Amino acid sequence: MSGVIEIRGLEKRFLGRSGTVAALDGIDLTIEEGEFVTLFGPSGCGKSTLLRIIAGLEDASSGSAAVLGDRPRAASKRKNIAWVPQTPALLPWRDVRANAHLPNVVNRQADRAGRSARRPETPDSVLAEIGLGGFSKARPSQLSGGMRQRAAIARGFVQGSPLLLMDEPFSALDEFTRETLQTKLLDLWEKHRRTVVFVTHSAAEAVLLSDRIVVMTPRPGRIQEIVDVGLARPRDGAVLGSAEFAEKVAEVKHALSQGWSGEETR
User: Fold this and answer.
1) The pTM is what?
2) Is 265 domain-assigned?
3) Domain range for 251
4) C-alpha to C-alpha distance for 197 and 193, rounded to whole angstroms
């Protein structure tokens, strides 16, 4: 059975002032329906570049990437990909409900033909699930940073796309808000079961959220190791204090150190 995402021999090179820079090299990856997979590694390892290629925002230099059997740009046009960026990117003149509903009022041709079997969610129900039920009429300027990020996550689920891509959505938040939103995201994912590809440079966040963690090497980014998390679901913040959680975080960090110590990758 083919996965939601199929990547084979993918390479990405950029032309810089001093010549060609290799960002990604030899990426092979399959992600199945309903998985929560995290691309993990420090800044500069190519994880966000790989996510942007999956999203159809950038093209690979060689190799292939497919989403639901389509080229990523085609899958995006069919609304089969939802995107949650690092910053909320909410329209300041629209209230929270209108921002969450925005993907479903643009590109209506994709709603009539070509989209996957999943349908858009009701904005009110998703906003209530993520803790914004009482703020649907508020403008972004009236919300805290954490609440704006909740609205951005809600927008991704409201779109109803089978694939949700999340590029370090909690990186700018304080520790308490970050942990709260991690739990909210897990609750939403458990209920709606989208396929999620998530980017982070936090090993603990990756372990808490993921089924599998793709550990990246330094540039050019390669897959050093894919770690199966294996912790029971559903999960919440209580798992953070368990010995099993600590052991898995240590395993992920060790895999990262192997790639970043100059040892041969596999």
Assistant:
1) 0.91
2) no
3) 5-260
4) 12
